[in-house]
Amino acid sequence: MEDTKTTWKQKADKLSELLKTNPEAGEQVVYRSRQGLNDDPVCVPELVSEKMEANSYPDVVTAPPTDMVSPKYSWYGSTGWFENATQQQGTRIAGLEANIKTVSQSLDDLKKEKQTETATSQKQDEKMDKLIKLIAMTNAQIGTLLGKSTGSTTSTQPSQPTTASVVQPTSPVTQQPTAPVTATEGGKK
Question: Is the pLDDT of residue 148 over 80?
């Protein structure tokens, strides 16, 4: 059996070279691909005498990808070149299976990471709730302690006089809340 890739690609290259050296040989290279199941070969490069802008059955204007062994053009449904060689298709299917396995493993890893993150987040939320409760209890205790010391109406007087001498004023003195009253000698300010 003849190597299909070599045949179609080499023939296309030869025809392209012929057009460069002898423009009268034809207008352009097209790729003939019939839709039947048993058409062999499935891609035949040929020269046409008139320039083609679009595909016209069975001739295709665009070349198939060079990595295809036995390219065939699909004229129905989603049009385009596809690989017709079963060995090449098997290789591509194996590659796709490997890609699917890799993507599936990545998806499983992401699910595990998400579960771990969710569990960690829940633990952090629980710790934060406990910390907030502890802060609230501490604030309540501080408030209680501050309320007892500032809310008391009794004041304590020192049992011993201080080093400064206290002079009783002769007239009543009114204390102003903003300015402290100081007593000096003779009761004058």
Answer: no
Closest CA to 70 of 15, 3, 1: 3
End-to-end CA distance of the chain: 128
Q: What is the pLDDT of residues 33-56, one digit of tens each?
A: 876 666 556 788 888 888 889 888
Q: Are 65 and 81 in contact (CB under 8 A)?
A: yes
Exposed (0-12), middle (13-18) or buried (19+): which is 72, by Cβ within 10 Å? buried
Say if residues 64 and 32 touch (Cβ distance below 8 Å): no
User: 73 has which bridge partners?
Assistant: 81
Contacts of 72-79 with CB under 8 Å at 24 or more apart are: 72/33, 72/39, 72/42, 72/43, 73/31, 73/33, 73/43, 74/35, 75/35, 76/35, 79/55
Q: CA–CA separation, 149 vs 91, rounded Å?
A: 86
* Structural contact between residues 55 and 34, judged by C-beta atoms closer than 8 angstroms: no
For residue 23, cis peptide bond before it (omega within 30 degrees of 0): no
Comparing 133 with 155, which gets the higher pLDDT?
A: 133
Handedness of CA 57, 62, 63, 67 (dihedral sign): negative
